[in-house]
Amino acid sequence: MTLRSLIGNWMSPRRATWSAGVMFVGLLLLVVWEMRHFYHNQQQQAQAHTAANAEMVAQWMESVLDASRHSLQGVAELYRLRQNQSLAQQDLANLLNRRRDSLSVWQDVAVLLPEGGIVAATAPGSFSFDDSPWLQALASNDAGSESAVSPLYREADSGTPYLLHALRIENGGGELEALVVARLSPGYIVHVVNQMPVRRGESVAILDITARVVIQRSDQQREAEALRGKAVSTEQLNAFLDSSVVSDSWVRQSPLDGDQRMFTGRKLQAAPWLVIVGENTTVYLHDWWRRFWALLIGILLLLALGSLTLRHYRQLYVAEQTLREHRNRLSEEVAARKEMQQASELKAAQLKIAALAFETHLGMFIADANNRIVQVNDTFSEITGYREEEVLGQTPALLNSGRHDADFYRAMWQQLDESGRWQGEVWNQRKSGEVYPQWLTISVVRNDAGEVTHYVATLSDITQRKAAEKEIHQLAFFDSLTGLPNRRLLIDRLEAALKDTQREGHYSAVMFIDLDNFKTINDSLGHYLGDALLNAVAARLSGIIRDNDTVARLGGDEFVVMLHKLGSNEQAATHSAEAVGQKLLKTLLEPIDVDGHMLQVSGSIGITLFHGEEVGVSAILQQADLAMYQAKAAGRNALRFFDPTMQAAVIDCAQLEADLRHVIERQELTLFYQTQVNAHGDVVGVEALVRWEHPSRGVVSPGVFIPLAEESHLIGPVGAWVMETACEQLAQWARDPSTEPLSIAVNVSPNQFRQVGFVEQVETVLAQTGANPQRLKLEVTESLLMEDLEAVCERMEQLRELGVRFSLDDFGTGYSSLAYLKRLPLDQLKIDQSFVRDVLDDPADAAIVRTVIALAHSLELEVIAEGVETQAHRDWLYSEGCMAYQGYWFSRPGPVETLSL
C-alpha cells in the first residue's frame, strides 16, 4: 500500500468528522474557560464595589454613633456636675435639650436611675425601664461595656420602631448609678443612608443583630423609608451573623424583592447592626452576557462553516476516490487543495476568535518592538478620544500627561525587561487635554528566540473609583456642612499631637467653643440661616489660627480648636492659649451679615493644656468641656482654663452620693428638733431637722446632702425615714399628758411630695406608728406650686382628710402669688428668716413682714416667724400681730434628749 493510499484512508470522512469534532470541543472548552474566568472577574469587581460601599455606609454610621457616644459622655459629666451642685436641675434639663438639638442623630435623651426614676429628660414619657428589657439588661450587666446600641424595638402600644443608645454611669466602686439613654432619630438615620449614591441595580440596607431590617433602599426605591422592623432570614445571612468575621459576601435571591444579587455584609463595631449592600447580577454581568452572546453566535457560525466544509470535504473525498484509480496525480492535487483550504479556513476562524477577544471592555493597544502602536481596539478610542488612524505608528508617549518624571518610566522599562510584565496607576491625558487616572498593564511578547516582538497593553479609566475613594474619605473625616475636620479626624490629630508633645517636650492646647445664643437664632430665623451662620463662624475661626493648628466641628454649635506647639514653658503656653482665646471671643462678637440679616453671637471657651501622654484623648476633651461649662456659668462670652479641682469635685460628689445611698442602712441619720413657742413662751411644737453624721467626713451640712439627695432622687427614702422617725416620736409623746399636745413640723421636698403613692405612704406611717395625724404638720415650699397646681391641691386635700395640717415654708422668697394662697388648704404661713433677721434695721424687710402677717390674718391662717434671735425681734413681731416664733432666742436645734419641753 502506497503512502498516498495510507493518507487517503486516514483522512476518511469519518476521521475528518472526528477531528473537526475534537477541534470544536477544544475550542468550546477554551471559550468556556475564558467565559468562566471573565465571569469570576466580573463577580470579583461587583464584590469589591459592594464591599467598598458597605464600608462607606459602615464608616458613616460608626461616625454618627461615635458622635452620639461622645455626647452621651458629655451628658454623664453634666450629671456629675449636677450632683456636685455645680449645675442646677433646670440647667441640666436645658442642657439636655441643647445637646439633643445640637446632635441630629438624637431624637430624645434622658438620664435614668436603675430604680426606674428619671433624673432629667427632653421627653420624660419616651423612656421607661419597664417597657425596655434591653435597658434592664444593660442596667444589670455590671461587667458589661460602657455604652451600647440597642437592636430595633417597637413601641408596645403604637408599634412604632425605635433605636436606643445608652451609656452606663458607674460610681467609684463600679456600681451602676444611672443610665444616659438617647432615642436615636429615625429620620436622621434615613438621611444618612439616603446620602449614599445608588446606581442601577444596587441596594443598601441596615439590619440589626436579630436580622430585622432597620433601613432599606434600592434603585427601585430611591429614598429610604422610615424604620421598618421586617425580619429577614437566609442561610447565608444567618451564617454571617453567627461567624466572627466583620465582612463577608455571598450571592442569592433577595428576600425583600426577589432579585438575584451579590451581597456584601459589614458588621458595625459600635452597634449590634450590620450593613448589607447588594448589586443586581443582571447589572454587573451585563458585559459578560454581551460577550457570551457574541461568542455563541461566533461558535454557531464556525459550526455552520465547519459543517459546510465537512460536507464539501465528503463530496470531494468521494470524487477523489472515484478518480484516484484513473488520475492519481489529479487526486494528489485535489488533496493538496483540500489541505490548503482547510488551513485557510482554520486560520480565518482563529483570526475571528482573536478579534472577538481583542474587543473587550478594557482598552487595549499593541505596539511593535520599536514601541510603535500597530493596533488598538474600540474601547481604547472611547477612553483616550483618539481614533485608530490617529495613533498608528505613534508611540504611547502621545498619552503622557507630564505628571510622571523620567525615573518613573525608567523603573517601568526596567521591570518590563526583567519580568516581562508591569502594572500600576498612571496619570495620562486624553485627546481633549483632560488628565485622568488609569490602571495600565503591559505584557512583553517574545518569539522562540527570546526576542521582543510586541508589547500588549490593557488600560481602564479609574476616575470614578478615585472619586468614590475621595468622597468616602471626605464623608468619614470632615463635617458635611462646614468642611472642617469632624470628631473622628480631630481625635486622630489629637492622638498624634499627644505623641509629638511627649517626643518634643512642648505644650499644646485644646479649646472647646460653644456659641451662646445660636439656638435662639436658629429657631427664630430658620435652619438655612443657622447653617449659613455656622459656615461663617467656621471661616472666622479658621482665619485666626495657624496652618499647623486645627479647627473642628463636633456638631450643632460646638467647635474645637487644637493649638499645636505652644512652647516648652507651661506659663508661656498658657499665655499664648489665652491670647488666642481672647482673639477668638473678640472675633465671634463681630456682627455677621447673613443674607441681609446682621447676626451677632458670642462664645464660651473652655481651655485645657496637655503635655505628654499622662491623660488620654477622651480625658482631654472632657476637661475642655468642663471648662467650657464653667465659662458659661461665669456669664458667657468668657473663657476658662480647666482646673483639676473641677474633676476632684466631680469625683468627691460621686463618692458622697455613693455614701448617701447607704446612709439609712448604716444608721447614720439622726433627727434634731427646734422648738416653736407661742406668745406666752410656751412650747407648742417642734420642727424636725435631719442631720447626717458621716463616719469619716463628720457632720455633713444639710445644705450639701439635701440638694444632692434631690438631684440623685434619693430624697424619697431619706424623706420617708424622717417621716417615720418623727411619727414615732409623736406616738411616744402622746403617751405623756405633758407632751401629748405637741406637734412636729416635717419638711417635705417638692420631689418627695410629687412621688406616686406619697399620700398612701403617709397614711401607712401614721397607721404603723399610731401617731395622731392632727399633731403632724407638713411644711412645703412655694416651688411645689410652680407645676400642676390642680394635682398639688388634690393631694393636699387627701392628706387634710386624714387630719394632717400644712404650713407654707419660707413664704415670700419664691412664687408668692395670692392666686394659689386662696386655693390651697393651708393652716399656717411661715415667715422666712431672711426677712426676720433685719426687720429692725431694714424698712423694706419690716414692710414685707407686716404684709405677710396681715395677709395671714385676712386669710384666717396662723403665722409663725423663724430666725428670731433676740428679745427685740420677738417683741417687734408680737407688736405686729405674730403670735408664734422659732429661733435661737428660744433654742438651738438638738437631739430630743436636750429639748426643754
Automatic annotation (TrEMBL):
<dbReference type="InterPro" id="IPR052155">
    <property type="entry name" value="Biofilm_reg_signaling"/>
</dbReference>
<keyword id="KW-0812">Transmembrane</keyword>
<dbReference type="InterPro" id="IPR001633">
    <property type="entry name" value="EAL_dom"/>
</dbReference>
<feature type="domain" description="PAS">
    <location>
        <begin position="364"/>
        <end position="395"/>
    </location>
</feature>
<dbReference type="Pfam" id="PF00990">
    <property type="entry name" value="GGDEF"/>
</dbReference>
<dbReference type="InterPro" id="IPR000700">
    <property type="entry name" value="PAS-assoc_C"/>
</dbReference>
<feature type="transmembrane region" description="Helical">
    <location>
        <begin position="292"/>
        <end position="310"/>
    </location>
</feature>
<feature type="transmembrane region" description="Helical">
    <location>
        <begin position="16"/>
        <end position="33"/>
    </location>
</feature>
<dbReference type="InterPro" id="IPR035919">
    <property type="entry name" value="EAL_sf"/>
</dbReference>
<feature type="domain" description="GGDEF">
    <location>
        <begin position="506"/>
        <end position="644"/>
    </location>
</feature>
<dbReference type="InterPro" id="IPR029787">
    <property type="entry name" value="Nucleotide_cyclase"/>
</dbReference>
<dbReference type="InterPro" id="IPR001610">
    <property type="entry name" value="PAC"/>
</dbReference>
<dbReference type="Pfam" id="PF02743">
    <property type="entry name" value="dCache_1"/>
</dbReference>
<dbReference type="InterPro" id="IPR035965">
    <property type="entry name" value="PAS-like_dom_sf"/>
</dbReference>
<dbReference type="InterPro" id="IPR033479">
    <property type="entry name" value="dCache_1"/>
</dbReference>
<dbReference type="Pfam" id="PF13426">
    <property type="entry name" value="PAS_9"/>
</dbReference>
<feature type="domain" description="PAC">
    <location>
        <begin position="422"/>
        <end position="474"/>
    </location>
</feature>
<protein>
    <submittedName>
        <fullName>EAL domain-containing protein</fullName>
    </submittedName>
</protein>
<keyword id="KW-0472">Membrane</keyword>
<keyword id="KW-1003">Cell membrane</keyword>
<dbReference type="InterPro" id="IPR043128">
    <property type="entry name" value="Rev_trsase/Diguanyl_cyclase"/>
</dbReference>
<dbReference type="Pfam" id="PF00563">
    <property type="entry name" value="EAL"/>
</dbReference>
<dbReference type="InterPro" id="IPR000014">
    <property type="entry name" value="PAS"/>
</dbReference>
<feature type="domain" description="EAL">
    <location>
        <begin position="653"/>
        <end position="901"/>
    </location>
</feature>
<keyword id="KW-1133">Transmembrane helix</keyword>
<dbReference type="InterPro" id="IPR000160">
    <property type="entry name" value="GGDEF_dom"/>
</dbReference>
